[in-house]
Design brief:
Layout: H1 19-22, H2 40-43, H3 51-55, H4 70-83, H5 87-97, H6 99-109
Helix pairs in contact: 5-6
Bound molecules: iron/sulfur cluster (2 copies) and zinc ion.
Length: 136
């Protein structure tokens, strides 16, 4: 399944590699999807509902004058520690390279080298074939 811009959350999380998006039952449609298809915690997400975001016209946190704010730094700490994924680096990459280049690189990065399935950032093995994911 190709990665698309509308699956990149304002905070830099790629919903296409989130376990909640990839699972079969009660899956989440992604941060930018309809609210009724999201988990309550994502519906009330502090990044998407923060004042800077709601009062401004911008779509992504890298466009915010407060970036990276404390909420973003907290997310960064949690994701780099637990999942070896940096939302801040992701956002800077999008800012510098643009969405097309970012999405092409992301699709390659999160493809299982053994079976080609999309890998999950929240798991250490491929959901389809069980191969161990090599984090770069
Ligand atoms: S749970 Fe959150 S990060 Fe995961 S797909 Fe839904 S909105 Fe995206
Ligand atoms: S960088 Fe922080 S303050 Fe700015 S929109 Fe994102 S979460 Fe809100
Ligand atoms: Zn696999």
């Amino acid at each position: 399944m190709p990665f698309t811009k509308d699956l990149i959350a304002p905070c830099g999380i790629n919903c296409a590699i989130c376990m909640a998006y990839l699972r079969d039952k009660n899956s989440c449609s992604g941060c930018l999807g309809p609210d009724e298809e999201k988990r309550p915690s994502c519906r009330s997400c502090k990044k998407k509902t923060c004042e800077e975001h709601t009062k401004a016209e911008f779509a992504y946190c890298f466009e915010c004058p407060k970036f990276p704010c404390k909420t973003m730094k907290d997310l960064e700490k949690r994701y780099t520690t637990k999942y070896h994924y940096s939302p801040i680096t992701t956002l800077n990459q999008i800012k510098e390279e643009g969405f097309d280049a970012f999405l092409a690189a992301e699709e390659e990065k999160w493809k299982c080298k053994n079976c080609g399935a999309t890998l999950c950032v929240h798991r250490e093995t491929c959901l389809k074939c069980g191969a161990t994911i090599e984090r770069i």
